[in-house]
Amino acid sequence: MKGLGVKILGVGSYLPGEPITNEELKNRYALDFNMEMVRNKIGIHTRHIAADNIATSDVAAEAAKIALERAGIKATELNRILLGTSTPDYTNTAASCNVQFLLGANCPVGDTSASCAGFIYALDHGIRLIQTGLKYVCVIGADIKTRFVRKDDPVFCPIFGDGGGAFVLGASNNEEGFMVSELFADGSGLKNIYVPAGGSVMPASIETVTKGLHGTVMTVSGKKMVEISIKLMADIAEKACNKFGIQPKDVDIFIPHQANYLIMKGVAEKLGIPISKMEVSIDKAANSIAGTLPITFTQAFESGKLTAGKIVLMTTAASGYAGGAAIYKVPA
According to a count of CB atoms within 10 Å of the terminal CB, is the N or C end of the chain lower? Predict the structure, then answer.
């Protein structure tokens, strides 16, 4: 199968502040949660929490700066900046506008809101833009999700972290780079995991703040959510592999959304992918929402795993529901 004619020119990631252990988190918020479960089952050892003066656009820009440097291009050469995030700086201004300013770029920009699928949606958009003739597109996934969980919530407070990652995309031949990009959406799961207040349905008020409605809530059981997540990620990944003409077990590196190690392991097992092929960053970065895929891809790059010809499978699912998968063949 011919590829999409788009490759990654540079990657970067950024995790704000120092790593915070489970014990430190517990002490910081006087939070009562099962540290053994968070460490051994969910797979989180540390996470990063952005300082109060750091916004999502700051995190995104820092990741993009690294990706641009590695790509060897200037911000002024970018034709588009796309940011996947569910925690923008403001509700009425695209955070990517400030990313543009911080980078010193002068191109059009845009935010994509699809929760944990924000990056894969922005990536698909970026790929299509390169196919239509743009030269350089910077695609970023970044979130400061820790500000949208209640600090007394023993379920969500330990599992989210702040961070972001970025790709700089450019054209390639059809034998390398991105081979497949697939997306899906299913609005039936809209309120299974969501933040009730702060949008047009329930604007911020004293009452919404008092009731903690600006934090993430889950309206189905954790077990049910695990089952749904595994199925959604495995199904879209299998669809991508079928389109490319390979079996999932034949990929060299598997990068699932880093939401929960049990989910990640379950997806790999459902696809028949050996766990040894799965790249894991949740232990260090927790669930950084739209940031997980580019953060984990950057980790694989920095560890030297992305050698020429390797096949990388990325997959994610998000509240909404939304999600996607992409297959990347590392260029020579």
Answer: C
**Cβ contact 101:65 at 8 Å:** no
Identify whether 257 is a catalytic site residue: yes
| Cis amide leading into 328 (omega within 30) | no
Tell me 170's DSSP state. Answer: E
3-state secondary structure of 9: strand
Residue labelled with tokens 């780079």: 177
Gap between the Cα atoms of 125 and 82, Å rounded = 8
Q: Smallest Cα–Cα separation from 266: which of 41, 3, 29?
A: 41
Q: Which of 120, 13, 105, 98 is nearest to 54 (CA)?
A: 98
- Cα(121)–Cα(111) distance, integer angstroms: 10
Q: What SS3 state is found at 316?
A: strand
Place of tokens 């995991």: 193
Is the predicted pLDDT of residue 310 greater than 80, yes or no? yes
- Is 97 among the residues known to form the active site? no
Exposure letters 301-312 (e unless 16+ CB within 10 A, then b) = beeebbeeeebb
pLDDT band at 18 (very low <50, low <70, confident <90, very high): very high
Among 22, 98, 260, 287, the active-site one is 287
Residue that has been written with the tokens 């390169």 in this structure: 130
Direct distance between the N- and C-terminal alpha carbons of the chain, in angstroms, rounded to an integer: 18
Burial of 65 (0-12, 13-18, 19+ CB in 10 A): middle
Q: Which residues, in sequence order, are bridge partners of residue 143?
A: 163
* CA 63/CA 295 separation, integer angstroms: 9
Catalytic annotation, pick one of 116, 138, 157, 241: 116
Tokens of 79: 């034709």
Gap between the Cα atoms of 42 and 264, Å rounded: 9
At 45-62, the pLDDT tens digits run 999 999 999 999 999 999
Q: What is the pTM of this model?
A: 0.96
Spacing of C-alpha 51 from chain mean position: 20
Nearest-angstrom CA–CA distance, 70 and 306: 14
